[in-house]
Amino acid sequence: MDLALYDPEYGYYARAAQRSGRAGDFFTSVDVGPIFGELLEVQIADLADLLGPPRHHFDLVEAGAGNGRLAADILEAMRRRDPALFDSVDVHLVETSAAARAQHRAILGDAATRLAASSATLPEVFEGVLVANELLDAMPVHQVIQCEDGLREIYVDSDDGRLRLAEGPVSSPGISEHLSRLGVTLEPGWRAEINLAAVDWVRDAARRLRRGFMILIDYGHEARELYSVTHSSGTLTTFSGHRAAGPEAGAPAWLANPGERDITAHVDFTSLRAAAEAEGMQTIAFLDQTYFLLGLLPSIRNPQSEVRNLQTLLMPGGLGSTMKVLILGKGVGAPRLRGCSFSVRVT
Questions:
Q1: What is the pLDDT of residue 249?
Q2: Has residue 216 been placed in a domain?
Q3: Which end of the chain, C or N, has fewer beta carbons within 10 A?
Q4: Is the dihedral angle over the CA atoms 101, 5, 2, 216 positive or is it negative?
């Protein structure tokens, strides 16, 4: 999965600056239009206020920034709604794809004056807000299967030059320890994905954050649902041309042409929260995107002009309920947030 997505020469994300949208393979909230960034800016501005005056410096870090479209939408709204914050913000765009990073300044346009860094790694230390929208689901996972005689891992092997799946011993004790910490017991025949990379990433980001907030937006579940009969076939999925192919037996679609399609798995929010809290962060809220954005909606101008796009972002059964929002804080207490003012619900 790591090679297929991120190999510098052949990786799916490495070879193109943008993979989502109508001409791409999947659709994200950013593709709906600038309204998503405008709504996020409302919450970010409130978080900046909570960090306290004077606003002489404020770090906005976007991890998994792609070519910078979301950051551009946020900054455009910030310049219009809160010029003082715009003048004090330092933007750090974190993106592994060199092709995407090469477009950052052009996509930001006039707002590129606020670009402090365009890099493949998080800042060493920062104070402000980190946003990650649909980043963690694309981090490489371990896939395991529970057998009668214990846990086994699913590997990619080759046979006469063609890739195939093969079972073997688990590659790391961290896999079994991960399930044990969660109190998860898989039944014989169940498959599951263990995203140790996402847990490590959240832990690292929490250490680098001196004071401030994280807003993690992704699709996934609490561990008790993710590792249950509901998802007993696993959640590893590939997207190509807006068509999804799930965990079929035999040779899955992502083995046929690796590097040509997205590969993703649902996020375990229980483990992400625990990793952040172990590094001194506090969970402020966990809710559906629908309710998060509804709390922010009264603060934007003329939302009636965006009815169709808002429906796409809010619709239950679509992006609204599929996408979850985890908000974490460090050194900020447990403030009441505008994005939680409508309702804090997870469906």
A1: 52
A2: yes
A3: C
A4: positive
Confidence of residue 45 (pLDDT cuts 50, 70, 90): very high
pLDDT reading at 25 higher than 80? no
- For the whole model, what pTM was predicted? 0.95
Tokens 């052009």 — which residue? Answer: 106
- Containing domain of residue 324, as a range? 7-136+196-222+265-340
**∠ CA 47-51-53 to the nearest 5 degrees?**
115
Cβ atoms of 262 and 138 within 8 Å: the answer is yes
Look up the CATH number of the domain holding residue 300: 3.40.50.12710
